[in-house]
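Long-time lurker. I teach an intro course on protein structure, and each term I like to show students one example going from raw sequence to a predicted 3D structure in token notation. This year I'd like something fresh instead of my usual example. Would anyone be willing to generate the tokens for the chain below so I can use it in lecture? Attribution to the forum is fine with me.
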Amino acid sequence: MKKKILALLATYLVCFSLFGQPTNPNNQRQPKNQPTNNQQPPQDQAPIGGSGSTSSSNGSAFQSGLLHILELDGVAGSLNQGGPQSINGILNSVRIAGSALGGTPEFFKEDSKTTPSGGFPKIRYSHQLSDNTFIGIVASLGEKSTTETTTTSTSNRYTTDKITTTTNEWKVKYGWGPLNLNTSNDISYEFSIGYGQSKTSGDYSNFGIKLPGFSSGSSDGMSGYALGFGDLRYNITTLSLDYGVAVPMWSWMNWYFRGDTSFFWGTLSLSSAQLGVDTGATAGAYNGLDFNAFKSKDGFFAGASGFTMTFESGFIIKPFETFGIRFGGFYQLTYFSVGEVKGPSISGGQIVEAGAVPNLSSTTDNEQFGNYGGTVGLVKNL
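-- Reply from a regular --
Happy to contribute to a lecture. Here you go:
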């Protein structure tokens, strides 16, 4: 179904480009009352090719007015990352240590990977208000991603958890521009500010196994396994600076660069339960039941917050003057913090406040993440 939607959208844009091109006056039939070659034009009529003809006749319709640009960003798991991730997708890498392992976490190494798994394409629409200003909308509905995290502890404890989420997000931009990726003659620029919100909900699951650990030549005698599940939600607000440039190279190809710096803050909540079983000679591999139901505090400094910088560059292949196919690559650097959390945590039969649990947030808390990959899209000047 997702591939059919993308195919229909691409077919629509191609057909729009084919039949929406302005008619070349050179292909028009001569009216019957037009003078023949032996007749001289009236003296008060400018000769063909003189100052009376308009240069816009060989250009596209948007050159005679204000720009209206529609762009569709592809979302596909076949790409390395599928395009720059949303803030919520990045936050999926925030694992709640206490909810996954139970007992006292003893982290040694943690690896996390987030990949898109499809969804409706991200839509970018820019509407020029004057020669130098525009307003734009960026929206994505049902964008899906999956995050898998594997943790190894110093006591031979291995845990793999998975987060599968769906994100709906929107952003409004205003500033100088817009960036015309299909520009034909002049270099095009954009500099704008943006405000947006995004909401994410998804499922959380994990599997853990504990093998006997050895220290100073002796075994701790503990082994077992655990299964967990839960529900994860984000509510994030962003402020961004967007910028870019597009440079004509040939009539059929342009080069572009664009980027944005986004500051974000919001809340993160997780409800999770884990059942554990001991199989070793010594009890204590996993608690029989662990439960967490907490929510991070709100605000830029108290809650889940940080910033991300995205840089994207590539080429526009233009089959038609007002229609282009975009190919590029991106790099995305993110720094964030989970902040303070509140809510009950049950571990080993004891009920405590989640914020008092040691190492509750994550070993990936307060760290930098670098994502990179390919990006593809369709661009149509309306």
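Some talking points for your students: The mean pLDDT is 75. The radius of gyration is 28 Å.
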